[in-house]
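Standup notes
- HV: blocked on the assembly model, inputs below
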Amino acid sequence: MIPVTWYLALSIILFSIGMYGFLTRRNVIIMFLCIELMLNAANLNFVAFSHYLTDLHGQVMTFFIIAVAAAEAAIGLGIVLALFRNRRTVYSDEINQLRG
Amino acid sequence: MNTFSPFTLSSLSFLGPELVLLSVGILLIVVDLFFENRLLLPWLTAAGTLVSLVLLFNSPSGIVFGYMYVVDAYSVFFKMVCLVGVLFTVLLSERYLTTEKLRHGEYYSLLVFSTVGMMAMVSGGDLIVVYLGLELMALSVYCLVGLLKQDSRSNEASLKYFLMGAFSTGLLLYGISLIYGLTGTTDLSMLSQRVVSLDLINNHAFLVGLGLVLVAFCFKVAAAPFHMWAPDVYEGAPSSITAFMAVAPKAAAFAVLGRVLIMGFADVHIHWGPIIAFLAVLTMAIGNIAAIAQKSLKRMLAYSSIAHAGYALLGILAGNNEGLSATMNYLFIYAFMNMGAFAILILLCDNKRRGEQLDDYRGLAKTNPLVAALMLVFLFSLVGLPPTAGFIGKFYLLVAAIHAGYIVTVVAAMIFSVISAYYYLRVVRYMYFENAVQETAAVSISPGMTAALVLAMIGMIGMATFPGPILSFAGKSLIGF
């Protein structure tokens, strides 16, 4: 059996990549993908812990997270599309009309 | 703790207010599809909200669905704040949507669905339900912010809100996963027992998890340094939604913060107390100082709502029932004064002016004395000057924080409160002591707007003269918490 620490290490790596990408990338779509990476790091944690603790709550949580992430993706891409129609850009440093 | 109750149909009777709102939301979509008369929709929503409010005080309380859903007086109080917020928003939107040429149908149904999300969040006894409620609320509000599809400022606000919201959700989930892994449960009441029995109070991984959850909720209540999105989003969103966001989702996030920190992690107060104290001071500082530089009233009110989140954090910081009831009381009063100020802002928005710039308020007292007088009352209350409701709210918060021993934080709160007087009273100066730049048209008032203003005034006067009932309701709701 693979020890639970390996899963944790993998999930921390995933989470860090996601967070780093979100903070450094300027393309909104890539930033969004990085958020998905962070969510999946949490999913991996939940499933690993669920198996390790032999408790089903973690797996239930994972199902909910996957379903909600799908809804989130639909709304997020819709928002990006609405913005692209008006501005013709997906780069976050060009989206700077509101400031002060 | 109640006995374990598996799912039965009778459990649904605990969900009365939520089910009413859910059916209203679906009904609104149907009515929007088949009826031409769009003016029916706001009144239908308002009626549904009122029915839900009445049901809220007549439903049984208990813990249903296997500890998942807690219907107690604490959740009832916050649901009341959220429903009052929605009621105001609906009344304000009635004429505003026509002015802005917004579509009515999805606006009202999204508003109602986000409220259902808040109610689930407030009642969540398990982190899974809290997460689901939070997402239902957040996803609906992302759409509402971006509803002005032709306006690129609204698009931008919506995108910024979405990205920051989704990012904070990622942090929240990772934090929950760590807490789940260490305690083996997501049930809040079980969590507090496991934290003690497994001796996790000084466990580093546990503290990282708690920290991530804390950061995620600070994003939601727009506490500094996680407030960056708030001014932009509040400025770009339709004004009625800005008013809504400053009241209802914020109250719901505070409810969860209170429940998670004080019910789930009360024993870890030594760790999160100082952090919250620091965040509260920082939030008040950034909110109040940045508001001084604003030329737009809408953006100024956005910073002011950040500052008010800082004041409300004082009660959470105390970490006891006295503090939490002061926060609840304050959020309720804030709902009225903030909605009142936004009502005036929306009232002045017509085809010729936006009512968002401070210059629009020059000489208002000469052209519209009544409107200026109302605005004066709401602004005085936001400052927290003594005879107003805002003072009552702030007073109890400061007392609670002093009793908990955070003297320095309270002194800072007082200083920033004085600073805030400068920018609120500047609006008063514009209204009363300056002449209008151009001839301003008379404001046209609609039935919904009248109802909103009357309601706000009644609430303000009621809370200023008889603060007892709400305060004792907030206090009582925490017994056996």
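- HV (later): unblocked. Residues 9-476 of chain B form one domain. The first strand of chain B starts at residue 62 and ends at 64.
- Next: hand off to the docking folks.
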